[in-house]
UniProtKB/TrEMBL annotation:
This is Fe(3+)-hydroxamate ABC transporter permease FhuB. It holds the Pfam family FecCD. One of its GO terms (molecular function) is transmembrane transporter activity. It comes from the Bacteria. Keywords: Cell membrane, Membrane, Transmembrane, Transmembrane helix, Transport. NCBIfam families: PRK10577.1-2 (NF007866). PANTHER family: FE(3+) DICITRATE TRANSPORT SYSTEM PERMEASE PROTEIN FECD-RELATED, FERRIC ENTEROBACTIN TRANSPORT SYSTEM PERMEASE PROTEIN. The gene is fhuB. GO terms for biological process: siderophore-iron import into cell.
Length: 676
């Protein structure tokens, strides 16, 4: 009895300590932010002059002017931007019923950045007088396109989320292409794209403060309808909710809040995604609680990050984008909290996704054969048809023997990589039940990229073998980290996704800081990150093809798991399936497919996101049907993209992953616009 009582007391104390952990970490972060702020201010101005610098600075003292017009507005901006992004992220995740939704979901950030890039190249005079309005206009235009694509589908959460992500990819791809061609002229965009909080007056503070107050009031006015969005659409309609009108109003509010931040300081990633997750981990279960706690988490995260950036970077603090560095501080905190969470949960299913009529097996077989034949034809065309001094022409027999040695490895590697990414994306979306899941979200490709970036920064121009080894080591480290952080929750889909996103955010932060330095290193990283096959050798191509055949051949063995896991934990156990073991095996297969493809075409091709949606729009409903249809779609996309990127703008080249997004995104937008 005494032992049982002692064990009960220990368990109770352990549970109490776990419940206080988020609050303790929050207080620690607050203390760190305050300490760094005081230290930063002390280096600029002695403490006796702080009060005077705040209210009536001496115009003859440059230090007081700096504090009043630059340091204090920057401090206030960090609070306001973090709070606005936390509020917008909470609204997005609640309305779209998706833990991956964030302020960047509806193309807000990508639209603003593209608008400023275009203005920088062709209308630079407008930047000085209407830079913020250009960014705001680009953000709102991108969101309007998303709403237009999803309107016929009743603004269903899945349709809105997918349309937003496709618009984001398309705008981002155009922006990357401009940066590759005009890198010297868009150096400032590298810094702005990472979210620079540098201020020169109080105008942005006043603007964002008014947006936060008005947005908070509107959010609480919409509290009841947004709470009902947590139900499926049938039950929400039964309670008298006008789905399309209320969903449009809530999403418009979140878009306006996000666009205000983008127009003021640029793109700040991760905060809008992490703040709602941190609020939930802190114990906020009700929407009303999250609408208050998530903005506080966002403000604290961005405040701490900005002060740390100023402290660590010293005199160069103005050139390091705070928005990019946010993940360096927020992601480890998010991973730490995820590692201590035991409860497995299941992503909410979306019952409002418009379904096409089922397609017969014979029709699906015909479509598969047609796409496979089209892929082979594109492969042959990529080998034989090209652009040379005589223009576009088919190669003669003698010419073909000389050019095939260069073209064949690239085309073969592109085919294998496209198929592997498509299969990995299909498995990822099936396992997690999330239409926004993709190999890029898992974090393995981010780990591969981190390995390459570490090699480039540490050793400069390293050899091809060293690059492959560094990428493979990074992918393996990321996979082990994700599995370790997810194992306590029995590899629950939402925990795996959040762990992958946190690791991916670390990768994006490192990339943004590295690219902000500009120069040849930034251009090289942009080319590889966009999905380049420039350095493929015959050995790499054969290895990619062998890995593709072996790993794709293992996929049919997982068909039973893919059909049973979406039924839930209890049903899966009743049918004799160990959910923990099945999810672990599927995650390993996804990671291997992703890592192998990333070594070929880089981490940001997004074929793993779009190919499963193409397969589903063509009628594939069962897991194995979707895999078999998505694989040739992915292979066809990358082969055609690599061929066009190599030949279309000769002697210049565009990375295959970038061209794949530029080709696939408009067609997917057209399909989404026609869908009811």
């Amino acid at each position: 009895m005494n032992l049982a009582r002692l064990a009960t007391q220990l368990l109770t104390r352990h549970a109490a300590l776990r419940a206080w952990l988020p609050a303790a970490l929050g207080l620690l972060a607050l203390a760190g932010a305050v300490a760094l702020s005081v230290q930063s201010l002390s280096t600029i101005l002695p403490p006796p002059l702080w009060w005077r610098a705040l209210w009536s600075p001496d115009t003859h003292d440059i230090r007081q002017i700096i504090v009043h017009d630059s340091w204090l507005p920057r401090l206030a901006i960090s609070w306001l931007c973090g709070a606005l992004l936390g509020l917008a992220g909470t609204i997005f995740q609640q309305v779209l019923r998706n833990p991956l939704a964030e302020p960047m979901t509806l193309g807000v950030s990508a639209g603003a950045q593209l608008a400023l890039s275009v203005a920088t190249m062709w209308a630079p005079a407008l930047l000085g007088v209407a830079g913020q309005w250009l960014a705001l206009g680009g953000a709102l235009l991108a969101a309007l396109i998303v709403f237009g694509l999803a309107w016929r589908g009743g603004l269903a959460p899945v349709t809105v989320a997918v349309a937003g992500l496709v618009v984001t990819l398309y705008c981002g791809s155009i922006g990357v292409a401009l940066q590759l061609f005009y890198a010297p002229y868009l150096r400032g965009m590298f810094i702005w794209g990472g979210g620079s909080l540098v201020q020169q007056d109080w105008s942005n503070v006043m603007m964002l403060a008014s947006r936060l107050i008005a947005g908070g009031l509107c959010a609480f006015v919409l509290l009841r309808p947004m709470t009902l969005f947590g139900l499926d659409d049938v039950n929400a309609r039964g309670l008298g909710l006008s789905l399309r009108r209320m969903r449009l109003a809530a999403l418009a509010l979140a878009v306006v809040l996000s666009a205000a931040v983008v127009s003021a300081v640029g793109v700040i990633g991760f905060v809008g995604l992490a703040a709602p997750a941190l609020a939930q981990m802190a114990g906020a279960r009700r929407l009303s609680q999250r609408l208050v706690i998530a903005p506080l988490c966002g403000a604290l995260t961005l405040w701490l990050t900005d002060q740390a950036v100023q402290r660590l970077s010293g005199a160069m603090g103005d050139l390091i984008p705070t928005g990019a560095a946010t993940a360096l501080f927020g992601a480890p905190l998010m991973l730490m909290l995820l590692a201590r969470m035991h409860r497995a949960s299941r992503l909410p299913a979306d019952h409002n996704d418009a379904r096409h009529q089922p397609v017969g097996v014979a029709a699906l077989r015909g479509r598969f054969i047609g796409i496979a034949l089209l892929t082979l034809a594109a492969f042959a065309l990529a080998l034989d048809f090209g652009h040379g001094p005589q223009g576009w022409h088919f190669s003669s027999l003698d010419e073909f023997s000389r050019v095939a040695i260069w073209r064949a490895p690239r085309a073969l590697a592109a085919l294998a990589a496209g198929a592997m990414l498509a299969v990995a994306g299909t498995l990822m979306q099936r396992v997690t039940g999330n239409p926004l899941a993709s190999p890029e979200v898992l974090g393995v490709s981010a780990g591969a990229a981190l390995g390459l970036i570490a090699l480039v920064i540490g050793r400069g121009d390293a050899g091809h073998v060293a690059r492959i080894a560094a990428s493979a080591a990074g992918a393996l480290a990321a996979l082990l980290a994700i599995l370790w952080f997810s194992q306590r929750s029995r590899f629950a889909p939402d925990r795996v996704l959040l762990a992958g996103i946190a690791i991916g955010a670390l990768f994006q932060a490192v990339v943004a800081v590295a690219i902000a330095s500009g120069g040849e290193r930034a251009a090289t990283l942009l080319q590889w990150l966009a999905g380049s096959t420039y350095t493929i050798t015959p050995t790499d191509a054969v290895l990619a093809l062998v890995l593709c055949i072996v790993l794709c051949a293992l996929t049919p063995l997982c068909n039973r798991w893919l059909q049973i896991l979406p039924l839930g934990e209890a049903s899966a156990r009743a049918l004799g399936v160990s959910t923990r073991g099945a999810r672990l095996a599927l995650l390993l297969l996804i990671a291997l497919l992703t890592a192998a493809a990333t070594l070929v075409v880089g981490p940001l091709s997004f074929v793993g996101l779009t190919a499963p949606h193409f397969a589903r729009l063509l009628g594939a409903r069962r897991p194995l049907q979707q895999v078999l249809l998505a694989a040739p779609i992915g292979a066809l996309t990358i082969v055609v993209a690599d061929w066009l990127g190599r030949a279309l703008l000769m002697p210049r080249e565009l990375p295959a992953g970038l061209v794949a997004t530029l080709i696939g995104a408009p067609y997917l937008m057209w399909l989404l616009g026609r869908r009811r």
